[in-house]
Design a protein that fits this description.
single chain; mainly alpha; 78% helix; membrane; Heme exporter protein C
Length: 239
Amino acid sequence: MFGLANPDRFMRFTRPLTPVLWGLALVLLAVGTWLSFAAPADYQQGDTVRIMFIHVPAATLGLGAYAALGVSSFFALVFRHPLADAAARAAALPGAVLTGLALITGSLWGQPMWGTWWVWDARLTSVLVLFLFYLGYMALRASIDDEAKAGRAAAVLGLVGLINLPIVKFSVDWWNTLHQPASLLRAGGTSLDPAYLAPLLTMMAAYGMLFGAIWLTSIRTEVRRRRVLTLRARAAQEA
């Protein structure tokens, strides 16, 4: 794994892997979408239950993407490794999109279930804070012209944001909230009906593959961009 920290090895290893992830993501998305519409309507929620197949994977991957950003920020800050910095930067935008999608679909799901688009309970508020951390990370990087300083400052913010991840995860257990507790991963096994479990797991796998494909593509693009900047800087010095 640490051998892949070398940019050249990373680029060689991910060249054939990236299109495979894109292909798997598209296939799983197609299958998951079909299973989602084929699943029966819930006896209480009706067809709005299908929002779950978008909301839950988006929320889960939003957390996972920030974990990737935070871990990458740690290696970038401690070891000053440019590939780790590129990985952290590449995780920010897709993570923000996934978290924003989770907030939007959560509101669409919550309105018919709770009678309101938004409540300031622990789970919703902590996910909103996660979304703001993503925006803050990207804004901080964009606000500093020096890339090295921008990377270090953003890495510190990325590490601070890791504190919010367990709050998001365990908020429904620590405080009274309108948001339902975990129904997929919990002690005693899942409480989901098999008719909903298959499409949900398929969509979660699809979102995971899609994030992996976007992340690797973005890292590879960032590595190429930095190589071009380095070559331009050398050419300017020689001139």
